[in-house]
Amino acid sequence: MSEPEADAVFHALADTTRRDIVRRAIRREQSISSLAERYTMSFAAVQKHVAVLERSTLVVKERRGKEQIVRANLDTLRRATRLLDEFEAIWRDRVVRIDALLAEEASGATTAPSTESER
Amino acid sequence: MSEPEADAVFHALADTTRRDIVRRAIRREQSISSLAERYTMSFAAVQKHVAVLERSTLVVKERRGKEQIVRANLDTLRRATRLLDEFEAIWRDRVVRIDALLAEEASGATTAPSTESER
DNA sequence: GTAACGTACAACCAAATGGTTGCACAACTG
DNA sequence: CAGTTGTGCAACCATTTGGTTGTACGTTAC
């Protein structure tokens, strides 16, 4: 997931109503009006939330007759999860590096300390 | 993760600079000024990004002498990952439900909902 | 002490967000 | 045909965001 895309996805997820819409859309396809019934806010407000989700590609809209059907895009959701998993991987890498460093110290090695990649 | 907390976490993650700060902080502790050096924006701007991350508890600050040290909080990161995993679980549940429904239809179950249209 | 460094915070600004209402329009229903 | 329903969109508003500059303050170095 490219960084700008990730911006859009996490922004879209940073709202309780939008996460709820995604959950409903995952369970089953939803028309925008059926979604709007569920919330106290106006139809237009819900429409805007759906638009935010659509821009992030977390959902796709598909016209069916006079209705617009909202479907969840699991792929984007998975890419977001994977991005968070990368953070975890960075953490594990750090642990490995520190372990290696400690082992080196313990063995009394006096050679050059690790070439920290610094990033 | 409570919903308002999730709002803060995903909002914090919805910015390339902030995700980058988190990555750096995971690799090693960072002072705010050492972080600020890495970006073209002002020190105050970086300070604000760190404040957003701190509010979401994705990082914690700890004073060390005159410096303020930023450390990543993996726990919050993991809770965010878990929340995304729940979406995946909803999806799997849907698949199971649909499979069950199809199996029921195929077996010509006595209580099949569509038997009315058979003749 | 003074100087330099790292930080905190306020004031300010432009742009984006999240909500509203109102209106137009296309597609079904009778 | 007329009426209802579902949608799209513009205009408007208050608040938040993401950046700036400037100032003040505590800590370390000399």
TrEMBL record, chains A, B:
InterPro entries: ArsR-like_HTH, HTH_ArsR_DNA-bd_dom, WH-like_DNA-bd_sf, WH_DNA-bd_sf. Gene3D superfamilies: Winged helix-like DNA-binding domain superfamily/Winged helix DNA-binding domain. Coiled coil: none annotated. GO terms for molecular function: DNA-binding transcription factor activity. It comes from the Bacteria. Residues 1-92 form the HTH arsR-type domain. PANTHER family: SLL0088 PROTEIN (PTHR38600:SF2), TRANSCRIPTIONAL REGULATORY PROTEIN (PTHR38600). This is Transcriptional regulator, ArsR family. It comes from Herbiconiux ginsengi.
